[in-house]
């Protein structure tokens, strides 16, 4: 199974979870996702997801000046984003539980 397709399906949820823990700028979010085990996540996919979630009203943003390069645009989660995270998290938990049951019945060990 191609893990990149799985990541695309849950990237909103993963980005919301990372930003809910701590505000971050684009590459910081990419780095944290990779450190969490999503090594196949693409930079452009994460940047696009951050912009889309911001446009949808799930994230806030602010700019932090940098002495060592360009200013960084940080993203933070807001109430709408926390609601989306909770709802998508419940959906993911139910889906993963269903898949674990199906795999267990088929004799596949994770």
Automatic annotation (TrEMBL):
Residues 15-86 form the Transcription regulator PadR N-terminal domain. It holds the Pfam family PadR. This is PadR family transcriptional regulator. It comes from Knoellia subterranea KCTC 19937.
